[in-house]
Write a structure and sequence with these properties.
Layout lengths: L9 H10 L6 E2 L8 E5 L2 E4 H13 L6 H23 L6 H26 L4 H15 L2 E10 L2 H12 L4 H4 L14 E5 L6 H8 L11 E3 L2 E12 L5 H27 L4
Antiparallel strand pairs: 1-3, 2-3, 4-5, 4-7, 6-7
Helix pairs in contact: 2-3, 5-9
């Protein structure tokens, strides 16, 4: 039972098996087994199934060698053993199991199409750089440490501003806020850039100087805010090369989403 010994994290192998397309079991090709990686009760596990999982494991950081070979071979054997046992019980003929298998097959094919589409519609360096420049311009070179009090009615916000003018502390009045994430922290929003907020809030925040608060309620779709700016500091942005992988992935996702919309528009969906 040596093949049962776990040599790689089980979550990694389980994930690889879940990603792998179903393979067609085949008879063993003689003692040498040139076309199969193993046989289970006379049923061969194709070498291609092993190669696929090995490539994916190595792409995720696994080291090639006997340990990887033994682990992947062992997991494939375990899967085949369980598959044969399930078939003996007729589980493969259950409608819900057949449906899950069909859905998994559809997902694998869909994923393959997406991968092929991304490969044939690559994100150029120029497009990635243009998106980087846009994000830099949008983000700016400063970040702000601020706090806010959110209420439902404009009058409530005006009353809070008047109480601030009378000398009451912002962090104490924050207990009146309807924002559950900040009301118990004095309204603290931490360090952020204005562009991370909705436009009216961002505009009001950018117009403050450290130590001041908004003199009139700021209305957003969430209600009415009283905003205070505590500090401002320089923002260190990642270089284009550092941000490029993430930006490329984001643009790829946008490209796929746009293509999906085109497919949906051309399809007859009832």
């Amino acid at each position: 039972m040596k093949f049962l010994r776990p040599l790689l994290p089980l979550t990694l192998i389980a994930g690889l098996l879940a990603q792998a397309p179903a393979f067609a079991a085949e008879p063993a090709k003689g003692a040498a087994g040139k076309n199969v990686v193993a046989t289970v009760n006379g049923v061969g596990i194709p070498q291609g199934a092993y190669d696929l999982l090995a490539d994916r494991a190595k792409a995720q950081g696994a080291t090639d060698g006997p340990q990887l070979t033994n682990e992947i071979r062992g997991r494939l054997i375990q899967t085949e053993l369980l598959n044969q046992a399930a078939k003996k019980k007729g589980l493969d003929r259950k409608p819900e199991i057949a449906l899950q298998a069909d859905l998994a097959r559809h997902q694998i094919i869909a994923n393959a199409y997406v991968a092929d589409y991304i490969q044939s519609h690559p994100v150029t360096d120029a497009a990635a750089k243009a998106e980087y420049d846009r994000l830099v311009a949008q983000t700016g070179n400063k970040e702000f440490k601020s706090r806010h009090i959110l209420v439902k009615e404009e009058k409530e916000a005006k009353d809070i501003i008047e109480r601030l003018k009378m000398g009451e502390k912002f962090d104490k009045l924050a207990s009146l806020s309807t924002d559950p994430g900040t009301k118990d922290k004095g309204g603290d929003l931490g360090w952020t850039v204005p562009s991370s907020f909705v436009e009216p809030f961002a505009k009001a925040l950018a117009g403050l100087t450290p130590g001041t608060y908004t003199q009139a309620p700021v209305q957003t779709p969430f209600g009415y805010h009283v905003i205070q700016l505590d500090e401002v500091r320089d923002l260190k942005l990642p270089s284009f090369e550092e941000a490029k992988p993430q930006i490329t992935q984001r643009l790829q996702a946008q490209t796929v989403e746009q293509h999906l919309q085109e497919l949906a528009k051309a399809a007859k969906i009832n």
